[in-house]
Design goal:
The protein is mainly alpha-helical. Helices cover 82% and strands 0% of the residues. The protein has helices at 2-18, 21-35, 41-80, 87-128, 133-147, 149-154, 160-179, 186-191, 197-216, 222-242, 247-250, 253-267, 272-287. The longest helix has 42 residues, at 87-128. It is elongated and about 105 Å long. The relative contact order is 0.09.
Length: 288
């Protein structure tokens, strides 16, 4: 019973070492930044190696403490058993206790190896497991469906005036879907999305120009339309990329980019303007 409890306690502590909450949160943020192009593959790999190093040090340190504690417990047990045992009896008890503790440590060592192997295997399997083109296409379809991409793409076919005006309520709708109703100015709302700085800048610039246009009713300038198109392209692709599962962007970036290009080339066959912009933006995201 005591042996079983020792194993259970040991296993729980090892799991806490391997799956340290703050470290996992840091990795989650790093992977998100990697998918958004804010972190390079080299930087992500360096962070993963740091985490592995930390795990090795902590497990080694804890195991040494565990062995030391069990050795002390063993000596106390032998000393306390029988008030005046004979030398032969002490020797026999010591051998028995040492054998039991060695058996326990051997089981513990196997448990540690099993846990570490499981973690390493799960961590690397996503990087190494080959993903088929069909799986990539399914993931793209899932992302497109999740963000309601068809409605965004349909806006590409609006006439200039309707497109410029309709883009604003679409951004409002996007905000409400994520965060609910709010009386905040739209520029403040968009900050909650934590867009990359370049996207946040053009979104807020569009919002400002659109508000001025709404009140002044001045003529729509070509530069205003240019900006609105950039907003749609950047926001749409950001929504897609930020919703993709990390394994599709780690070792399958080229396949994923290629499938996205095929999708938009086919979907925007008759809209050369937006097709060109989206394909150029994809090239910047995946190959810059």
């Amino acid at each position: 019973m005591a042996k079983s409890q020792d194993l259970e306690d040991f296993g729980q502590i090892i799991e806490q070492i391997i799956f340290e909450k703050n470290e996992l949160e840091e990795l989650k943020i790093a992977i998100k930044n990697f998918t958004e192009g804010k972190t390079s593959a080299k930087e992500l790999k360096h962070l993963l190696l740091q985490c592995r190093g930390r795990m090795t040090e902590d497990i080694t340190y804890f195991t040494s403490l565990f062995v030391e504690q069990k050795t002390q417990d063993l000596l106390k047990t032998v000393i306390n058993k029988d008030q005046l045992p004979s030398p032969t009896k002490v020797e026999s008890q010591l051998r028995e206790e040492i054998k039991e503790k060695n058996d326990l440590l051997e089981i513990v060592a196997k448990r540690v190896n099993k846990l570490v192997f499981k973690f390493n295997n799960e961590d690397s399997s996503e990087e190494q497991k080959p993903i088929s083109i069909d799986e990539v296409k399914e993931e793209i379809e899932r992302c497109l469906s999740q963000i309601g991409a068809s409605e965004w793409i349909e806006m590409c076919d609006y006439d200039d005036y309707m497109f410029f005006v309709k883009l604003y309520p679409k951004l409002e709708e996007l905000y409400k879907e994520r965060f609910g109703d709010s009386e905040e100015p739209m520029a403040n709302k968009m900050k909650k999305f934590k867009f990359p700085k370049e996207i946040e800048a053009i979104v807020n610039k569009y919002i400002k120009i659109r508000n001025n246009f709404q009140h002044s009713m001045d003529d729509l300038l070509p530069s205003n339309l240019e900006l609105a198109r950039e907003v749609l392209v950047n926001v749409l692709l950001y929504l897609i990329i930020s919703n993709v599962k990390s394994e599709f962007l780690s070792n399958n970036r080229e396949s994923f980019c290629s499938c996205l290009k095929d999708f938009f080339s086919e979907r925007l066959t008759d809209n050369h303007l937006f097709r060109k912009r989206i394909l150029e933006r994809l090239k910047t995201i995946f190959y810059s």
